[in-house]
Write a structure and sequence with these properties.
Length: 202
């Protein structure tokens, strides 16, 4: 079954696009739209798309990105629980990070990026260890922010997706390049929708 998933559906710019990548693409777009609208179904969609992308990236020797998908699955289960549980019996509101949240987010990214990059460089045959590591660690941080409905997750995703576009272009995952390029305006749109909700709440 896995072998069938890696069969090419078509060729784009000289590189095969597999059926697995097509399904992962569709699930990811649906997930982002669900996140924008704060639909609970976004989290199971995240679990499914992460599982498929984990297989794709491992096959392409992007071990950081592949491992990231395991974190995404665990964090999606946590985010699903956060959104479903709410806060003090109410739906979890859109909120802003305080100073401590900013320090934790930026500090975790700055410390973890070179550590993971060095690990991938020495322990795997990853051809792009530090390029692979940056969106990996930043995506974990942004997913935690999303799970707590911090509006700052959206600018984090814009930066992460810009780096990911370059990474996946190098690996010739052209459908995924288009996906992550589309994620940039989708994240900007999500940022606007959540900002509007924050303003209305204020």
């Amino acid at each position: 079954m896995i072998e069938l998933a890696f069969l090419p559906a078509f060729t784009a710019w000289g590189s095969p696009v597999t059926w697995l990548e097509i399904v992962a693409f569709a699930l990811s777009v649906a997930m982002v739209i669900g996140n924008q609208r704060q639909w609970l179904v976004a989290w199971p969609l995240a679990i499914a798309s992460s599982a498929l992308y984990g297989l794709l990236f491992w096959h392409g020797q992007l071990y950081g990105e592949a491992s990231l998908q395991l974190f995404f699955i665990a964090l999606a289960a946590w985010g699903w629980w956060q959104w479903a549980r709410g806060q003090a019996g109410q739906a979890l509101p859109v909120q802003r990070m305080d100073r401590r949240g900013w320090i934790a987010s930026l500090g975790a990214t700055a410390v973890s990026w070179p550590l993971l990059g060095a690990f991938l460089d020495h322990a795997t045959d990853s051809p792009l260890p530090y390029w692979d590591a940056l969106p990996t660690v930043a995506s974990v941080v942004a997913t935690v922010q999303l799970g707590r409905k911090f509006i700052e997750n959206w600018p984090f995703w814009i930066a992460i997706n810009a780096v990911s576009v370059a990474l996946f272009a190098i690996k010739a995952y052209w459908l995924t390049v288009l996906l992550y390029a589309a994620f940039i305006p989708l994240a900007a749109w999500g940022w606007r929708l959540w900002a509007r909700e924050l303003k209305a709440a204020a």
